[in-house]
């Protein structure tokens, strides 16, 4: 094989590998965005209903069924949500909505809290915050 051909094949191989790595990374970012956008779109109405309920009643809802039908027509579901948990926290003064998901390579909890306060341990598990509503935590 000639030196020119060898150099050409080496450069072509590097370009192909770089393009493949870029494509995989790009796909992962697009997939992550799509999952998070779908979770937000599906469960933001529940979070808004929880805020509205708390505003109207001066206390958090004791469970999600209290939101139906006055605040939302029905409780939603998503193929990306493995489970949805709701709890009243801080001695009944606040609430937390958690969506557990394994749709991405690392299991995550999409958490909306009326207080937005998190423990030091939870802060270490924060992956990102978005839409000023959701805090995304690595699931343990």
Portion of residues within helices: 40-55%
Number of alpha- plus pi-helical segments: 2
| Strands in their spatial order, largest beta sheet | 1-2-3-5-4
- Which class do the helix and strand fractions yield? alpha+beta
Radius of gyration: 22 Å
Q: How many domain modules?
A: 1
The total of beta strands comes to: 5
Rough outline: elongated
User: Whole-number average pLDDT?
Assistant: 94
Low-pLDDT parts are: none
Estimate what percentage of residues fall within beta strands.
Answer: 15-25%
SSE order, as H and E?
HEEEHEE
Question: Brief description of this entry?
Answer:
By secondary structure, this protein is an alpha+beta fold. 43% of the residues lie in helices and 22% in strands.
Overview of the structural elements:
The chain is of the alpha+beta class. Strands 1-2-3-5-4 form a 5-stranded antiparallel beta sheet. It contains 2 helices and 5 strands, in the order αβββαββ. It has one domain (3-138). The protein starts with a helix and ends with a strand.
